[in-house]
Amino acid sequence: MREDWETVKLGEFATHEKGKKPKNQKTEQDDVFKFPYINIEAFEKGVIETYTDGEKCRFCFEDDFLMVWDGSRSGLVGKGMNGALGSTLVRINLPGIENNYAYHFLSSKYQEINTRAKGSGTPHVDPYLLWNYDFSICSLAEQRAIVSKIEELFSDLDKGVTDLKKAQDQLKIYRQAVLKKAFEGELTKEWRDQQIDLPTAGELLGQIKEERQKHYEQQLENWKQAVKAWEEKGKDGKKPSRISKPKIVPEVEQEDVEKYDKIPETWHWSRFGNVTYKIGDIDHKMPKTVEGGMPYLSTGNIKANGTIDFNNAKTISRADFDRLALKIRPERGDIIFPRYGTIGRNILIDFDKEFLVSYSCAIVKNILNLMDAKFALYYSISPVIKREIKRYTVQTTQANIGIASIELFVFPLCSKKEQHQIVQEIESRLSVCDKVEESINESLEKAEALRQSILKKAFEGRLLSNEEIEKCKAAPDYEPAAVLLEKIKNL
């Protein structure tokens, strides 16, 4: 910090007041209920949900700063609004300081405040951390100049970030276009024309039916052995759940696919449930948690980046695990298909590990000797499946989709040889997308780092040039920082 600047602890002069929930609220504004209730929705998005009559309220104003005090966004600061202050927000005022200068200072501390929030349940701002920040004071003329320079630099930065995010959106559209063309047979059209005696989808479907029956018979034998062992142990614990026969899902009718693009003549419209060993979930009764037991995942453990968080998974006893696993267990080559909340955030299991997934997810058991697991995965996240999900999803408090509906999803079946080729065509294109996206993400991280660097320099007195500083000193209202600080202390 420069020698001609002054420093004061933020808590020594900032005023603040926490909001509270109004006694009376209405969704419509009238002559009595005329004060907007400023909650987080209003603070972040400008959306007013309710109005109050002002009884037992605390108010905030446009020249205040509002900070989220409680919750995952704690520490987030924004410019104030006129209304009744929400119970999770705090109004902050820095008297004698140029408003936007104060705003940018508080904004620069968001990341640290948020990551160092207190509380084992709902996180909240650590007041000791906030009020002990050193606040750098310079002349009002220089404060205005610093704000102007910050906003000029941020404007250029924001434009670049907007362009990068637009490119990200275009990549998402391109990925979906690749998947759409892949499952219409367009990506393998030339390849298909060069093939001789390519097996038909109808032949493959017959092999799949036979394989499903063999798999069921093996499962049934395993169940019989489990029941026998249970009986020999005096029927201790729950009896193993009976294994159901492979479900034959009704064939596809023309009306089921008439809104989709045509597929090649050698392909065949089938259903997801007819080209897999099984699509199912485990018993809906939650087993007891046992420390150090076997992993039992839920949708919360399925991450958007296609990974599984085993570290925070629930664990159950080995006995419960073995009993539940008889019905269905995830294995290498299977697809985990979340069916509550984030429906369709599917991932392929490409590793060997013993674990179970709760009934919030379906397990798609792929027939690996006849079907390419990646072909099934890519189709399960394609535009067609997204339309199928929309068709069958039940909209309640939490969107969900049943196993029977997933089984009914239409499926464009082709020979396994062509499935392999389609996967190669998809991945050659998506690998380019991955590299571009990685570059975009790196650029976004650099942009954010640059934003923080700008703020850091600003409040260390290193953002303005010597010429700009001298210009501030020549301003009509210029007064040294020490004089301004003395005035602030006397307010």
Would you mind describing this structure in some detail?
Among the domains are: 6-139, Adenine-n6-DNA-methyltransferase TaqI, Chain A, domain 2, CATH 3.90.220.20; 238-414, Adenine-n6-DNA-methyltransferase TaqI, Chain A, domain 2 (Alpha-Beta Complex). Helix content is 41%, strand content 15%. It has helices at 40-45, 99-108, 110-115, 127-131, 140-182, 189-193, 201-232, 254-257, 318-325, 373-380, 383-392, 403-408, 416-458, 466-473, 481-489, and strands at residues 6-9, 15-18, 25-26, 35-38, 51-52, 59-60, 65-68, 77-79, 83-85, 89-93, 134-137, 268-271, 276-280, 289-297, 314-316, 335-338, 347-348, 356-357, 361-366, 410-413. It has a five-stranded mixed sheet. The longest helix is centred in the first third of the chain and has 43 residues, at 140-182.
Strand order of the largest sheet: 3-5-4-9-6
Give the N-to-C terminal Cα separation.
25 Å
With helices defined by DSSP (H or I, 4 residues minimum), what is the helix count?
15
The CATH architecture category of the domain at 238-414 equals Alpha-Beta Complex
Mean pLDDT: 91
The first-level CATH class name of the domain at 238-414: Alpha Beta
Number of strands: 20
Largest sheet geometry: 5 strands, mixed
CATH superfamily grouping of the domain at 238-414? DNA methylase specificity domains
Write down the overall geometry: elongated
Structural class: alpha+beta
Tell me the helix content: 40-55%
At the third CATH level, what is the topology name of the domain at 238-414? Adenine-n6-DNA-methyltransferase TaqI, Chain A, domain 2
> Segments where pLDDT lies below 50 for 5+ residues?
none
As a whole number of angstroms, the C-alpha radius of gyration is 31 Å
Proportion of beta-strand residues: 15-25%
